[in-house]
Design a protein that fits this description.
Blueprint lengths: L1 E3 L9 E6 L8 E13 L4 E8 L2 E11 L1 E7 L5 E7 H14 L4 H4 L7 E2 H9 L6
Antiparallel strand pairs: 1-2, 2-3, 3-6, 4-5, 5-8, 6-7
Length: about 130
């Protein structure tokens, strides 16, 4: 749902992202954020499944702040300030990590939840089980 410049061998502090909507949230249209700064809002952390184009075929449970504040520049250089929560916050933290050379494996608290994507789809996604 996102791509950071370092993932395509560009040494820039920017990423693009898009968050699909659901019953409770509208689509977040594609956006580019340059030189982002992210700060948590509160101490609430949620575990959630993540995968990554940089590490194809794997999924893992990753703790992320539930709500964040973001300051950045958009594609035209305008200042952007927003608050994100839930999946939106997760996507932004995931992409932001790439700017510092961090991948989701580095954030996992335990590799016990690491799964091949085809196993994850079969056991977690389809059955609703938690590894």
């Amino acid at each position: 749902v996102g791509l950071a410049a370092p993932q395509v061998a560009e040494g820039l502090r920017l990423f693009v992202y898009w968050v699909p909507g659901d019953d409770d949230h509208p689509d977040i249209t594609p956006q580019l954020l340059a030189n982002p700064e992210i700060k948590p809002v509160g101490d609430s952390v949620e575990q959630g499944w993540e995968g990554c184009l940089s590490i194809p075929g794997l999924r893992g449970l990753v703790p992320r702040y539930s709500r964040i504040k973001v300051r950045a520049r958009d594609i035209e250089g305008n200042s952007v300030s927003l608050t994100a929560d839930g999946f939106h916050a997760r996507v932004m933290q995931h992409e932001y990590d790439h700017l510092d050379g961090i991948v989701f494996l580095d954030r996992m608290e335990s590799t016990a939840s690491l799964a091949y994507e085809h196993e994850w789809e079969r056991y977690v996604l389809k059955s609703g089980n938690d590894l």
